[in-house]
Every structure is written in structure tokens, then in C-alpha cells.
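#lab-general

N.A. 3:47 PM
ok so I finally got the sequence cleaned up, no stray characters, all 180 residues accounted for. can someone with queue access submit it? mine expired

B.Y. 3:52 PM
send it over

N.A. 3:53 PM
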Amino acid sequence: MKYCRVCKTAKPESEFPKNGGGTFRPDCKKCHVKRVQQWYCKTRETRLAVDKEHYVKNRERLLEEKKTFYKENKEEVLEKGREYRKANKARVRELGRERYRDNRDKILERRKAYVSQNKEKIKVQHSVRRLKKQGHIIPSSHCWHCGEDSPEAHHPDYNKPLSIVWLCRSCHQRAHAISL
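B.Y. 4:20 PM
back already:
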């Protein structure tokens, strides 16, 4: 048994965190956590200012490290993102709505620019959608690449509008990222 100097109660040693040297702290885990939380709240503004200053001074290096990390761990980063979006669908949807509300004019402007720059692509997409609705094109039930359900129509070449590969959303996005 050990005595906590903060709450002044006797507790088993398992209730006390260890210091870096392997010895037990004089305050129990609950008291230690409470003290650390209070410290974080009290020093929040100062820490944010220090962090911001550090980022401004080291921006280029930090961005380069971030790029390097992403290149080295791309699949893991993407998988983690997919898992997060799958586990937090409502949150992701709400953030998307907020982003749209906050940036509506910019988004509509970009969309208008995309439409004017990609008239042929959009024409092909509309024709495929129409043919699919009329029953002339029957979509596959599985992704051509990974076998996932509910695939989308992908056009490897927009000059061949009926040459369609059925891909799930993630494989479709990957296909476009590779072709860029």
C-alpha cells in the first residue's frame, strides 16, 4: 500500500503511475490525470502560440516530412482514412455539409469551370446514365478490380463511350488518380 499525497488515501501500488526512473509517483493515477488535465487547460493558449510559432519557423521542413511519411506509408494512411470514414459516416457527412455551406460559392464556381472544361466527359456520362436507365447497358454487380458491391461506370477512354469498366468507388478514384 502507498499513500497519495493529493487525495490523502492509501491505495495499492498498482494505482500509482511510474516515473521515468521506474519509481512510483507520489500522487495516484486519478489525481495525476486530474492535475495534467488542469495544466493542459491552463496552458492551452500558450502551447497553441508556441506550436504555431514552431510551425511558421519550420513549415517547409514539416511539409517535406509529411510528404515523405505519406509516400512511405501511403497504403496504411489511405486504409486508416477508409476505416475512419466507414466508422464515422454521420460525422463525415455532417462535415461535408458544413464545408459546402461555408464554401458554397467557391464550390459552385469550380463546378461551373469543370463543366465548361469537360463537356465531352459529361456528355458521355449522361449518355451512359440514359442508356443504363433505358436498359441498354446492364451494370455489373461487382467491382472489376476488387469484387466489392455497387460499382460505378469508369471510362478508360472517353472517345469510346461504350467501353466501360465497372469499379467500386475507391478503385474508381484510384484509377483516376493513376491516369492523371
